[in-house]
Amino acid sequence: MAVLxxxxxxxxxxxxxxxxxxxxxxEAGKSIKNIRSVYVQExxxxxxxxxxxxxxxxxxxxxxxx
Length: 66
Hints:
Blueprint (H helix, E strand, L loop, with lengths): L2 E11 L3 H13 L5 E14 L2 E15 L1
Antiparallel strand pairs: 1-3, 2-3
């Protein structure tokens, strides 16, 4: 039986929510191994002068603990 752990990460991107999610997984992957899944919990944007400047995501990343 595998033991799984879930952590919450906030990430952003200038391009899209999908890119922000990729950034979260990429950064988590630098210190966490065996990532199994990512769940996008919330999405938001930063607005400046009526333009979207950043896409933000709050994600939960699930990984196997050895």
